[in-house]
Amino acid sequence: MIELINNIYYKVRLQNVTHLCKTKTMLTVNGKFPGPPIVAREGDQVVVEVVNHVQNNVSIHWHGIRQIGSQWADGPAYVTQCPIQSNHSYVYNFTIKGQRGTLFWHAHISWLRATLYGPMIILPKKHEPYPFPKPHEEKTIILGEWWYNDTEAVIRQALQSGGGPNVSDAYTFNGYPGPLYNSCTGARGLEDTYKLKVKPGKTYLLRLINAALNDDLFFSIANHTMTLVEADALYLKPFETDILLITPGQTTNVLLKTKPIPSHASYLMAISPYFTGSGTFDNTTAAAILEYEMPPKPSSIHKIINVTSKDLPRLPSINDTSFVANFSNKFRSLNNAKYPVDVPQKVDKNFFFTVGLGTSPCPKNQTCQGPNNNTKFAATVNNISMALPSTAMLQSHFFGQNDGVYKTNFPQFPLKEFNYTGTPPNNTNVMNATETVVIPYNTSVEVVMQDTSIVSAESHPLHLHGYNFYVVGQGYGNFNPRKDPANYNLVDPVERNTVAVPSGGWVAIRFRADNPGVWFMHCHFEVHISWGLRMAWIVLDGKLPNQKLPPPPADLPKC
Fold first, then answer.
1. In whole angstroms, what is the distance from residue 114 CA to residue 33 CA?
2. Which parts of the sequence belong to the Plastocyanin-like domain (predicted)?
3. Structure confidence at residue 373 (pLDDT)
4. Does the chain have fewer CB atoms within 10 Å around its N or its C terminus?
């Protein structure tokens, strides 16, 4: 029986929000930052009416929801839908099919997701247990950023100058920057700090979400170990760690066993960036507090909250690629009788995509601040920097009116081979186009995504809309099609919706194209999306009625 989660109204409006002793007016959903959570169960139908009360165009993406049969609700502006214009609304209507776990929703136009985001908690069906010990309590921690500046002005200025954008002023736990940043209060910013209250000797399920615009983040809790049990709303073979990495767009569920007799009443949680590229980034550490609820008696327990670096949990160095590689290789699907792996063993269509940065020429009579003399930063898949059309691609596809909107000649392989992670080619200019890949329904697909060092090698969290995929292999250096596939894991590979292409390396994914529509794939670093590191898949209809793209809803926004 499908239950209807109805009467959800998301009113996008301006709200004054104060952090670090500065107040700014910013876009929010229902006046909240982060936005309100959606809590549903596997199998539920979710209906959310989004009403736009601001001057910006808006769209909302339900990140990780496959949208089977509800393709028009996916959300990315100019791909799935035209954005919701000021004083207009749109009803997102979808059923959660075969999914349970932690996901999130966020704006999917320009940089509006800096403040328009919130959790999506999908519980198992009623009377369906977790495949791990039942936690005493569940807590959600959504990681993000605090910006003094208007992020729309930040990216607008960067695109005009061709240089890298300004960076955020702080990282946040559930919207709070914490005590390590400068504060005008004498209490060292503790009123601006997220506190996670726990009881001794209990097990907690922490739902972690990285909603930051441009930063992979390390996460740790001082003197505590976590057990990973889920990633991107898919169950894992559990493994323990005291540090984890989570990229923008990824979610991770961990079990935290609290100490039966803690030596302190409070411990620090901390996040810091992982970054290997060139350019500026927010090189700060944010903290929150794990606070034990204790009876006020044993003198051995110090009710002291320390905010110095010596009390922080140990975090890797900013460019610790070896930790990242070892951590990434620990992920395996649970792969039991109830939650089996269905990785394609045979591939119908192979693709090899380079992903990375490049340059565009500076317009005449303008000085640009890109990586080389008088250039602009650009980003590409197979050296194509995708220009978004001015109308929605899914609508154009459905009505067979793609002329002037998009083309269908996206290259299956790079147009020019080179030493992808070695000395960059002399010509670093990119091509600008709106190209797509067209594949028949139910095609088994393998995509190898290869990082390039044309400007600088760096990690790219690639997100595929409408699908989960299996990560069957990854490595450093250039992918070797003769040797590397022999080491693929086709038994219990991790299944995800967002995967980090390793800095200076490659990752191989497989999926079965069983969801017709137009599906966006892009780097989840917002700056890289803005520079063009994005493309789209068109999956054609199948033969059966439930294998076809349904007609658009009557209230679909117009461009």
1. 10
2. 12-126, 138-293, 418-541
3. 78
4. N
pLDDT of residue 287: 96
The alpha carbon dihedral of 88, 94, 99, 100 has a sign of positive
Strands 494-496 and 469-476, sheet pairing = antiparallel
Across 379-403, b (16+ Cβ under 10 Å) vs e yields bbbbbbbbebbeebbbbbbbeeebe
Q: Dig out the tokens for 269 from the structure.
A: 């949680």
Sign of CA pseudo-dihedral 71, 76, 81, 86:
positive
d(CA 47, CA 92): 6
d(CA 435, CA 432): 9
Domains and CATH numbers, the chain: 1-128 (2.60.40.420), 132-333 (2.60.40.420), 349-539 (2.60.40.420)
Per the CB < 8 A criterion, the answer to whether 53 and 499 are in contact is no
Q: How do strand 444-451 and strand 505-512 relate by DSSP bridges?
A: antiparallel
* Nearest residue to 238 (alpha-carbon basis) of 336, 124, 346, 97: 336
Question: Which residues have a Cβ under 8 Å from the Cβ of 508 and sit 6 or more positions away?
Answer: 446, 447, 448, 449, 471, 472, 473, 474, 479, 484, 485, 488
How deeply is 205 buried, as exposed, middle or buried, from its count of CB atoms within 10 A (0-12, 13-18, 19+)?
buried
pLDDT at 2: 60
Cβ neighbours, 10 Å, residue 529? 24
Q: Check: CB of residue 167 under 8 Å from CB of residue 281.
A: yes
Q: How far is CA 252 from CA 206, 208, 478, 500, 507, in A?
A: 8, 5, 29, 14, 20
Largest CA distance in the chain: 75
What's the residue count for the chain? 559
DSSP string for residues in 42-73? TT-EEEEEEEE-SSS-B-EEEET---TT-GGG
102's tokens:
């932690």
d(CA 328, CA 459): 12
With a CB cutoff of 8 Å and minimum separation 6, the contacts of 134 are none
Q: Is this model's pTM higher than 0.70 or not?
A: yes
379 Cβ neighbours under 8 A, 6+ residues apart: 355, 356, 357, 358, 385, 430, 523, 528, 529, 531, 532, 533
Mean pLDDT by 10 residues, the chain (559 residues): 75 96 96 97 96 98 98 98 98 96 98 98 96 98 97 97 96 96 66 94 98 98 98 98 98 98 94 91 95 71 54 95 97 97 98 97 91 91 97 97 96 95 92 98 98 95 98 98 98 98 98 98 98 98 97 96
DSSP 261: S
The count of other CB atoms within 10 Å of the CB of residue 558 is 12
What integer pLDDT is reported at residue 430 of this predicted model? 96
For β-strands 38-41 and 117-123, DSSP reports them as parallel
Contact 395, 370 (CB under 8 A): no
What is the structure's pLDDT at 191?
80
Structure tokens, 552:
């658009």
